[in-house]
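Bug #2210: token dump truncated for TetR/AcrR family transcriptional regulator?
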Amino acid sequence: MPQATTDVRERVVNAAERCFARYGVAKTTVEDIAAAAGLSRATVYRSFAGGRDEVILEVLLRDLRRFLDRLAGRLGAQSSVPDGIVEGVIDAVAFVRGEPRVAALLTPEAAGHTQTAVAGAAQSVLRLCADRVRPYFAAAQREGLLRADITVEGAVEFLFRIISSMIVLPGDGDPRDFLRTYVVPALTESD
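Reproduced locally. Full output below:
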């Protein structure tokens, strides 16, 4: 992508973040974003052919990349694959709950407001997460720590579904106990 296009896209995403903080995701319009970026609507649409939904998705993916960078550092400090799974899920739940923009796109009530963005976000989020954990996943499978018959894409989707359910239905007690009892055995090799 040419540098000028990248710079404009970055301006639009930065402006969208400010607008989402000010008006909320559901109420922010392309006109709001264009005005905050100091650009015309036409320029926004030239940079984001998918319009508002594509801008929303790009903001979400940027937030997610930041989270995954922090998570990678934290997971590297975990002493075992099961601990990494448990703490990674706990961190992801806390991240979504703590980031209103992300929560607005990945929770059920978002579907009524930004259905297209949510559908695109889910696939993009899964793909981004799978790409980020692929090296760790492959190493754990080579060492016999993860089941050999599962794929990184399937494992990420499974964990995404677990994370989503934990956001919607927090449950009682320590979620780590639930994760260790039910989720870790579904992914790891048994002794």
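Output looks complete on our side. Residues 108-113 have pLDDT under 50 and may be disordered. Marking as cannot-reproduce; reopen if the truncation happens again.
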